[in-house]
Structure formats: C-alpha cells, structure tokens
Specification:
six-stranded parallel beta sheet, 247 residues, Rossmann fold, single chain, alpha/beta
Amino acid sequence: MSIVADARATLEALLAALEGIPTRASRAREMEKVKQWCAVQLDRIEPQASFVRALRQALPEDGILVSELTQVGYFANIAFPVQQPRAYLTPGYQGTLGYGFPTALGAATGNPHRRVISISGDGGFGWGMQELSTAARYRLNLRVVVFADGQYGNVRRIQRRVFGEEFATELTNPDFETLAAAFGIRFGRADSPDTLADALLRHAQLEGPALIEVRVGEMPSPWALIHPFVPAPVPPPPNPLGEPRDT
C-alpha cells in the first residue's frame, strides 16, 4: 500500500491525528546512564582511547580523518567523535589493508582548504608509502600518521588466539625520518597521545604534507566492543539497564 499526497498537508494531518494521545515518558535519564556506561567501556581500551582524543583535538570541526585497518583505526570506528558530514572516512570491516593513505591523498586533493589526517599502521602504510611522492609533488594539506609496532598486529593477535603462537607477522620498516627526507616532506615523531597531539598541532599551520611516526607497543584488543563473539580482555561493567548483553 502506498500514499501519494502533499508532504506538508500529510504531516499536518498526522500531527492532528496524534493530538490527545498520551506521550511516552522521557527516557533521557536512562540514556545518560547508557552513555556513561559506554564511555567507561571505551576508556578501558588504552592507549587507543587517548590516541583518538589526540586526533580529535588536532582536527578542526571540518577536518577529515581517514582511518585504516590499524589498532587505533578499529577503535576510531566506534569512538571517534564525528562533528560534520563527510569528515570521517573508513574502510569499514572489509579488510582492505592499505586503503587509508591513498584514500587520504584523494580527500586532501578534493578538499585543499580542509585539514586532513591519515592514520595507518606500519603494515598498512607499506602498501602505498611510495605515494609520498604524490603528496610532495602537489603539496597536499595532509598529515600522515603511522603507528609503528613492527608487526601486523591484528594478524599476530589472531594467530596467538587460534594457534597459540605467531609466525610471519614481523615487518622490516624503513627509517621513516629518512623516507620523509627523501621526498622533501616534513617529519615528526611521537611516542604517546600527548606528543602526537603536540606534533599534529605543530605542523597544522604549515603548508604541505608531513609524516609523523608514532612508536607503539602491543595494544589491547578493541574487538569485544565491535564483534559480539570476540571475548573481552577484561570483563565489562554491568549493563546499567539490567538487560542482557551479546558480548
């Protein structure tokens, strides 16, 4: 069944029909409890939560974050505060390793007056690092953040869970400072969320691209917050509404 009608007249008729019908009591207080509960769960995943806050701090409202299959990227998919449309680009969960940096080149090219940050792991960045030549040639307004742990981190975690050991996950990375210098690109290094925020803000008002290496260690899995069949590394807090949980 379908209805063809003037939208304004139809909406006015629907509003009139609803008059006198008791409204449901506000659940704003319950929603606030749920939001607080969610925030507690997110804050338990460190250092990813602090890195996401640092990225948000370094971007203006219209800035664009291009995510990737990296530990901070997985967490950003559920926790990065997006303040405007078309300001967060992600490969989703399709497993398209190497998506982030090339996509960020396109975002920066199409939005020359907006600040663009690309986040990748060292494994994903390795798929397209030669495109630093493109960023350098066109002087793109792009900050390329590489979280470097020397591993395919998620593959390593899966192998440990399934096989009890890991194999062929180690990376042989270039010296990222030398790599940036080879293309005439500014370079920065960070080892914590605070130093990442400082590095991004320091490069924010300078023209052209910058490469920032963030040296990290093994991070806790955020997947219990994403996929209902992945066990949480730490038991989550009780549901504030007393309803059953899938995880």
